[in-house]
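REQUEST FORM: STRUCTURE PREDICTION
Request ID: SP-0412
Submitted by: Lab K.M.
Chain count: 1
Length (residues): 315
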Amino acid sequence: MSYEVALAPVGHGDLALAAYPRMPATLNPTGVGALTLPAYARIPATLNPAGAGAVNLAATARMAATIQPTASGAVALPAAQKYWPASLPITAQALLSWGALARMPATLPLAATGALALGAAFPTTAAATTTYSTAGATNYAIPWWCRYIDVVLLGAGGGGGGHAFGSIYGGQGGEAGAWQTITLERGVDIPWTATTITITVGTAGSGGNGNNNGTAGGATTATAASITVTATGGPGGRGTGTSPYGAQTAGASPGSTTFQGVTYPGGTGGTTTSGNGNPATAPGAGGGGGNSGVFVGTNTGGAGSIGRAWLRARQ
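STATUS: Completed
RESULT:
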C-alpha cells in the first residue's frame, strides 16, 4: 500500500508516522512536540519535516531528493545505505547528530545552536589479499574502502656456490631471503590522499660456476608515501674457491610466517645432487650447492627463487 501523492500532517503534541512500503511524493509533517518518521524502503521526493521539539528520521535505503529538516529541539539523522540528496540543509536549535553514511550529499550546509556531531564509516567489506610474484616494480592500488593494509614481504633466495674440477670441497647452498611485515594505517602511517604503494619483488640469485660464489637474491620492498619497508635477499652460497671450505650443502628455506592471523608460505631450498645443485622452489629459498669431489668435474650451484609480496587490505 502507499500514502497519497501529498501528505502534510500536523500534530500539536508528538507526531509519529507509521511505516509504509511507499511514501507520498511530497511529505511536509509539522509537530509542536516530537516528530518521528519511521524506516521506509523509499522516502518521498520532497521531505521537509519541522518540529518544535525533536525531529527523528529513521534509517532508509534511499533518502529523498530534497530534504530540509528543521527543529527547535534536536535533529537526529540516521545511517543510510546509499544516496543522501544532492543538497541537504539542516538546522537545529539544539543537538544535531548524524549517522555514518556510505555516500554523502554534494552540498551540506549545517547549522546547530547546540552540539554538532557527524559520523563517518565505510560500507562493510571483506579483507582482500593481492599477491605479487613477478620480479620488478609495480604499483598496488589502495582500495578506497580500507583502513589498514598488512604488508608481508619476502626477499629472494641466493644462488648456490659452484664446484671446480679437482677440488675436494663442494659448493655451499644459497641463503633464504628475509621476511618483513608491517601494518599501515591510513591517516596515521600514510595519508588518506595516498592512492598507491610501489612494490618491488626481488630477483632470484644465480648459481655460481666452478670456484665462484652464487649471487645474492634481490630485496623485496614496499614504498608508501615516506615509508619504505625492505625484506633483504639471501646471500649467495660460497664456491670451492672461497674460504672457509666445506662439503656440498642444500639451499636454505625461509619457512612460513604468520601475520595478523594469516599464514604466508615460503619456498624450499634446492637439494644436493651428484652434479649441479638443484634450483630452489619459490618463493625466497636458496639454491643448492654444486657437488664436491676431485674427479666429478665442474658443477654449477642451483639458482635461488624469486621473492614475493602480499598486501592485505582490511577494515
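NOTES: The mean pLDDT is 81.
Reviewed by: T.R.
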